[in-house]
Amino acid sequence: VFDEVCETTGVTLKRFMSEVAMLNPDITELTVLFGAIETACKAISNLVKRSQLPSSETLGYQGEVNVQGEDQKKLDVITNDLLKRALRFTGRLGVLASEEEDVPVDLSGANKGVLIDEGERYVAVFDPLDGSSNVDAGIPTGTIIGIYEHDENCAIDPDCVGEDCTEQEAQCLANTLQPGTNLVAAAYCLYSSSTFLVLTLGSGTYGFTLDENLGEFVLSHPDIKIPEESSIISFNEANTPNWDKPLQETVAKWKAGKGKSGKKFSSRYIGSMVGDVHRTLLYGGVFGYPGDKKNPNGKLRLLYEGAPMSFIVEQAGGLSTTGKERVMEISPEVVHQRVPVIMGSKNDVQEVIDAYAAAQ
Ligand code: P6P
């Protein structure tokens, strides 16, 4: 399917999606969502680029603390509202979860008796502005989005009363707690030297670059394939002493040129997941935020960071593991659950997996 669409780069995202929908009618609804995602990414790119101007309304802190216990920047709140609105007005979403929302948001109007009709068949999970603490220093930031099918049996009984309703609403909202293997699409927008939108619909990973003269995302990286092996590690190495031994030993070998490939690794770490993963996809490498003694599940969130990014990396031929299991196979118990993540070039990540297995 995608090869036919990708015989020429320069195809706009809109044309890419309409041709994919023509060739795959069953995902037409899904392509509608990408119209909203594209618009939101352009708007957020603009906000980020202008955020440091003295006249900007988006400078500084909101004065609130989010469920993560992080000071919310005005930009966190604005980008979250922008993305929620854009997705809501597609009429295709039943429920969404966001890093900036304490609990999932029911978009079916939360009215009793509202069946999740086939129009509202999707669930969106997202981090509206990952790495936002970097914005003031002009360091790359990004938006991460995952799309699941909604359980259409989820409905709120018109005659429900009290506890019963809460129970049913909870069931509907629990539809966000799906493993990465249920993802039907994932995307990230990277706000950096260029604005990129990288996506997968489950048949490969495709990269688009915003042509600001046209105001359109154009296909610039058709069918991205991550190099199978690399010589770049991308971790916050201040945490090395607390890592699991298998990872400590593997990374030490890579640094000494004594790993499987014999290559001597260098280190590249932006401290902004979307930028680090994008470079890893294009240049190869191993990006990670592993668990450690202090935080056994690391720092990144499974639902709207680990799983969608793992889907994109796997669809580009890479691997994504906690060290002990595939990130995409983990079913979240709570919305903001953390997960250890080691992802990137297949052969290198496999070396970490083997080191963990040998240590069992
Ligand atoms: P540290 C940004 O705050 C973020 O959530 C990810 O984008 C990034 O990979 C990670 O945290 C960086 O964390 O502890 O290295 O600053």
TrEMBL record:
Q: In which pathway does it act?
A: Carbohydrate biosynthesis
Pfam families given in the database record: FBPase, FBPase_C
Query: Which molecular-function annotations from GO does this UniProt entry contain?
Result: fructose 1,6-bisphosphate 1-phosphatase activity; metal ion binding
Please give the Gene3D superfamilies that the UniProt record associates with this protein: 3.40.190.80, Fructose-1,6-Bisphosphatase, subunit A, domain 1
Tell me what reaction this enzyme catalyses.
beta-D-fructose 1,6-bisphosphate + H2O = beta-D-fructose 6-phosphate + phosphate
Domain Fructose-1-6-bisphosphatase class I N-terminal per the UniProt entry, residue ranges: 12-222
> Which Gene Ontology terms describe the biological processes this protein takes part in?
fructose 1,6-bisphosphate metabolic process; fructose 6-phosphate metabolic process; fructose metabolic process; gluconeogenesis; sucrose biosynthetic process
Q: Does the keyword Signal apply?
A: yes
| Enzyme Commission code | 3.1.3.11
Q: List UniProt keywords, sorted A-Z.
A: Carbohydrate metabolism, Hydrolase, Magnesium, Metal-binding, Signal
Cofactors needed by this protein, per the record, are: Mg(2+)
Cross-referenced SUPFAM superfamilies, in alphabetical order?
Answer: Carbohydrate phosphatase
What is the name of the protein in this document?
A: fructose-bisphosphatase
